[in-house]
């Protein structure tokens, strides 16, 4: 098996990053009243400014069921980069992707949209890009072997087809996890077009805490997970690339069909962050990915001592505070994205050598100076003799 295929296998195995409970009835008291995550990030305050209108969030996942009552009218046609496996109506179809889409842009249903799941940016559109299959899909192994480049292709496709934000609630944090040049290049391509890219930090916090990709690629906004108490979710991976944290425990989401699931993981945490970015982009279209990242980190709630740590990044995301801070922010021109790390990939994190970090070697300069002096002396002696 080639390295690329092993990489794809790991992504397929770990991309779900979500544990689900049985489908639940669509009752306001069972769903809406338990969406603690919206209150924790001050979503209602942010909605006084915008609900994400005019923004498209690409959901790179297992597909999205656009017929779910809480997503009807919000979901654009699916781009399927797998091309086989389960289809609409099947048990293994779009469970994970539908859940993530509802966290981002669910608008509820019923009278006054008072029932069902309400997302962070209920006015945003969802662009589904199918790049993985559900764990329960019988064709999953085939997808690993034959569609190793689907994620990289999906990032580029989304960037070229109207995405304002790219959400990747997936990742590889296995022992064999490693950076893939195609994925890295695709992310840099999206960033160079002014599109923020979000990924889940990983669910290895109770295991070996391996670095997870795509979260660890340069420029990606990586989301860790917190509980309703504000503490780090025990499963949430802790690493240098953590950007901000978001709700990721006991999260109610839409399921394919008309059902609901309650789950956990850094997958919904990433969806919360993508929803927050959708709100910012709706109100401030011209901000660059770097500016949006800075807004998220500088306005995060409960910042750790020192400004950040590997558990929470800069703290709990707060789109209301970010929107307020953006009011007087002048957009900067989008600069070309940095070109990944050429030689050393993501060990303890990217480092910058300072002037005094590497001592200067004076020996070559000293030897050269002495040599020039000797030549000059010899020339002077020759002139004197002649």
TrEMBL record:
It comes from Streptomyces albospinus. PANTHER family: CEREVISIN-RELATED (PTHR43806:SF11), PEPTIDASE S8 (PTHR43806). It holds the Pfam family Peptidase_S8. It is a single-pass membrane protein. This is Type VII secretion-associated serine protease. GO terms for molecular function: peptidase activity. Residues 1-28 form the signal peptide. PROSITE patterns: SUBTILASE, SUBTILASE_ASP. SUPFAM superfamilies: Subtilisin-like (SSF52743). Keywords: Cell membrane, Hydrolase, Membrane, Protease, Serine protease, Signal, Transmembrane, Transmembrane helix. It is found in: Cell membrane. The keyword Transmembrane applies.
